[in-house]
Protein: Protein-lysine N-methyltransferase EFM1-like isoform X1
Amino acid sequence: MACTEEAKLEHFLQWLQVNGAQFRGCNIKYCDSTKGFGIYSTNGSPEDGVLLVVPLDLAITPMRVLQDPLIGAECRAMFEEGEVDDRFLMILFLIVERLRKNSSWKPYLDMLPTTFGNPVWFTDDELLELRGTTLYRATELRKKDLMSVYEDKVKELVKKLLVLDGDSESEVCFEDFLWANSIFWSRALNLPLPHSYVFPQIQDDVGTTCPVDKNSEGSTSHSYSEEPINEIDGKRFEAHGNDSKVNGVTSTSKQEETVWVEGLLPGIDFCNHDLKAVATWEVDGTGSITQIPLSMYLISALQSPLPVDKEVSISYGNKGNEELLYLYGFVVDNNPDDYLMIHYPGEAIQNISFSDFKGQLLVAEKAAMRCLLPKNLLDHGFFPTGSSNCKANNTSEADDRICNFSWSGHRKTPSYLSKLVFPEDFMTALRTIAMKDEEVSKVSAMLEELVGSEGERQPSETEIRTAVWEACGDSGALQLLVDLLQKKMMDLEESSGTEDSDSELLENACIIGNAEQQTSKEANNLVQQKLMSRNRWCSIVYRRGQKELTRLFLKEAEHALQLSLSEGN
Structure:
């Protein structure tokens, strides 16, 4: 690690400690070029397992922004007018503090990454590796949206806020906004806080307490007796905030309501993700655990003491590579939490027969036009791929459609029902969309029988689903599902080849830091073919996983279709 990076780290650690953070069994240090900084265990892990404690006062939250002595009043006015939301407030705050010459947050901001691995930061060539995937289109739309928000709103707002600080010279650029947006989405925490901390109680004249008016809750903050100190210039600043890490184990007071608040918490947000996490975070509202009231702490999840110099990782949640890459800029090879998204395009309904009638049915049935298919669903299908703790199956869902009507029960319950891995809400949508003209007539007649000639009542969701099932069974829906999966596979392979070709690329890959490094290593053509940026490697891992899941779920759908046809369903 370069001397400048060591100096930044030392300065940040001092800043944390001066502002009340306590390192009790860990420290922050540089991991590698992929992870950046991380938290590592040190000698003498405490018996209670608490490794790090950070006061909630240090969190960057919407309440802190609205109470900021410099930009709070202006932000509050925009917030109350509905011009900005809570997340946008924090992104604005990050941009302004990054551009301010004497920011109290400089030790923290200097430690944050300046480039990211999520697709909005990809080069054009790297982005092409995602063609055919859900992320490719999503990234294109996201970049357009971010540029539009920057031009229409961010640029002028940031200039306006900087002028309040007497700075009319600093120039904001799109990269500042992109940076702040990525910092928020990759590091934002979701913290359960005591209601009284987020919305302090107001005493009325009679001496009773009444909560802050709901209309002002979003812009109300706790007041503190002590203010954190920035050692750079000795300047004191008000701290009004709180925050949390996604998927942590939380500890909340049983005596009052919990309020979830998003934000950034310096220190704890340096924990990296691992499927086998060794720590979790918790909130100590009373100080009974850490002796620091209103704090957040990192605690070991292991029964035995942590080995010295072991990285203290947490879990960001059961996230597939699509979400990990889009939000955090990394993937997990052979991710057990991977999933496939399938959807029927809403605009295509206009081109099918009886589109208006089917559209009304879809609404009344509360059918889903898209679904997520987690990898572990396959463990309950016709061709199990491994063991899983997933307990999901669709038997009870599907059985709900079997009701006692004069026209019900004629269609035999499928033998394959317990092995069908596709969600019933999505199957309901596909059955409705795939109905033939004569089946539409049957459904209409069945529903007329239920509501009566005078239309005394409306059929229920279950009744409509049952009628559709009785009229058309599963074969039409399963054929449509097979078509959707085949189209998805075609899109994936047309853009980047087969699953096997991706595996070959990964097997021969030599990962380098970024695209710029790649162009500087052209001495040997053979070696050059094997070199790839980490962004490209992540893209190939993600798209290979999508091809694998498409292949496996297509196999399930094709087998279910064969059984459905053979059983007359």
